[in-house]
Amino acid sequence: MKVATRRRPPAAPDAEPAVPKDEPDVRLQARWTGGSHLATRSATVLLWSALAAGPLALALALLTFLTISGTAPTTATTAADRAGEQVAVEEFAQRFVVTWLQTPQGQENQLTPYVQVAHVNLPVVPWRADQPTTAGVRRVAPGAWSVTVAVTVSAPSSPARRRYFVVPVRYVDGGSGSAGPGLVASALPAPVAAPIAAAAPALAYPYRSALTDPVATSVGEFLTALLTGNGDVTRYVTPGTVIAAVNPPPYTVVAVNDVLIDRDVAHGAAPASGERLAVLVTARATAGPQQDIDVQYALTLLARAGRWEVKSIDPSPVVAADGTNPGPQPTK
Q: What backbone phi and psi angles, to 5 degrees, belong to 289?
C-alpha cells in the first residue's frame, strides 16, 4: 500500500522591501552609477584571482586595473587649466610688445627671451610704451594662441596714441617636473587696426518719465545717496537689497537729466505695491568747478507702500527682443 505524501509548496522568493517615498532608492542609484562601480569591482576581483594564479597573471591584472581606474580630466579641471594657460599667454604677450617697442638698436639680445629670429631691425630712438592690456585673445590650436595687445605708444616728436599689435604665442607645458610652462612668440608683433565700433543695440525703454514724477524723484534720491554721501542708501532700496554707497563720495551734486522706462505709468500717481519697472536714468554728476560728467544707470524698481524703491542696479540696460526700438514716447 502506498502512503500518500503531501509536498510542501516551493518557498516564494523574498519580496524586495519597499523603499520609503522620502528616501532615495539605492537600486536606482546603483543603476545610475553602476557602470563605473561594476568596472572597479570587476578589476578588484581580477586582482585577487591573479594573486592565486601567479606572478604573470598578477602583472596583467594590475595593468587592467590601472587602465580601468584611470579617469579622464573632468571638464572643470580642463577649463581651469585652460584659464591658467590663457592668463600666462596674455601676460607674456604684453611684456613682449612693451620690450619690443622700447628696445633700441644694439640691444637686440633683450628680445631673446621672447622670440627667436635670425635678424631683427630695431630703431635708434625707440618708442615709449605704457598701459599694456589685452584687447583680444583667441586659442587657434592646442598650445597656440593669438593675442591682441593694446598699448599707449609715444615718441619724442608725436603725441601718445593707443596702438594695437597681434602676437602669436606658443604655450608648452613642461609637466610637473619642470619649473613651469614654456612660452615663446612665433613671430614679431604685427600692428593692426583698432577694433571697429559696433552698432548700438536697440534698448527696451519706449517711454519717458517726467522729471517731476515719483519715478524720477526716487531714482534721483537714490543716486544722490549713492554718489554724494548725502542720505542713507538703505532708505531707497527694497528690503533685502544690499547696495553700498561709493566711499569716499566722488561727487558733490547729482542731478537727474532723463528717465526712460519700459512701460507706461500714470503721470504723478502713486504706484501699487508689487509693481515692477525697468529704468534707464541719465544724471549729471558734479565733482567740482567745471567738473561735470553724465552717468547712466540701468535700474529695476519695485513699488512698496505707495513709492518706488530700487530693487537692483542691473549689469546692463534691457535690450529690445526684436532688435527694434521706436524711441521714447513724449513725456505725458
A: -55, 125
According to the CATH classification, is domain 82-192 in 3.10.450.540?
A: yes
- pTM summary value: 0.67
pLDDT for position 234: 97
CA proximity to 148, closest of 132, 163, 166 = 166
- Extents of the domains making up the chain: 29-69, 82-192, 207-313
pLDDT in tens, 272-294: 999 999 999 999 999 999 999 99
**pLDDT tens-place string over residues 195-209:** 999 999 999 999 999
Look up residue 244 and give its three cell numbers.
553700498
Fold of the domain built from segment(s) 207-313: Nuclear Transport Factor 2; Chain: A, (3.10.450)
